[in-house]
């Protein structure tokens, strides 16, 4: 029995004191770690807010650019239509000038001698212009 008593350690007041100091130290360290975690969380939340604001700004800018791109596309379509019309007008005017030049130089000969033939030729010319217009589009 005396051997078993000697194998058991007797806890003294000093042992409790040091154990208490150790626990206080661990508690302070845990509190310090918790404060650091809270600071990190706060910093991350601020960063998240800043990123959200930046994303919203980028989305606003992107939306504006999309609107401008749509306006440019419409303008391009209008300009292309104007270009086609101008080309058609140029071809028409060149043909007219060619005929007038021929009349001026006395080389013009009537293509159609009757009203019916004039209408047929007019229809052919309109079909040709329509075909040219389709090709240009």
UniProtKB/TrEMBL annotation:
Protein name from the UniProt record: Coiled-coil domain-containing protein 39
GO term, biological process aspect, one: epithelial cilium movement involved in determination of left/right asymmetry
InterPro entries: CCDC40
Residues in the signal sequence: none
Electron transport keyword on record: no
Coiled coil location: 18-54
PANTHER family, sorted: COILED-COIL DOMAIN-CONTAINING PROTEIN 40
Cellular-component GO terms for this entry: cilium; cytoplasm; extracellular region
Source organism per UniProt: Micrurus lemniscatus lemniscatus
Record keywords: Coiled coil
Highest classification ranks of the organism: Eukaryota, Metazoa, Chordata, Craniata, Vertebrata
């Amino acid at each position: 029995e005396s051997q078993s008593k000697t194998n058991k350690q007797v806890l003294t007041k000093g042992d409790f004191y040091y154990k208490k100091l150790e626990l206080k130290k661990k508690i302070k360290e845990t509190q310090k770690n918790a404060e650091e975690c809270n600071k990190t969380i706060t910093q991350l939340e601020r960063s998240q807010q800043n990123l959200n604001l930046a994303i919203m700004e980028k989305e606003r800018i992107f939306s504006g650019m999309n609107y401008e791109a749509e306006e440019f596309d419409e303008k391009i379509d209008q300009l292309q239509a104007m270009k086609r019309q101008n080309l058609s007008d140029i071809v028409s005017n060149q043909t007219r000038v060619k005929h007038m030049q021929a009349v001026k130089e006395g080389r013009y000969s009537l293509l159609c001698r009757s009203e019916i033939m004039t209408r047929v030729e007019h229809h052919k010319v309109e079909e040709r212009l329509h075909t040219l217009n389709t090709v240009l589009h």
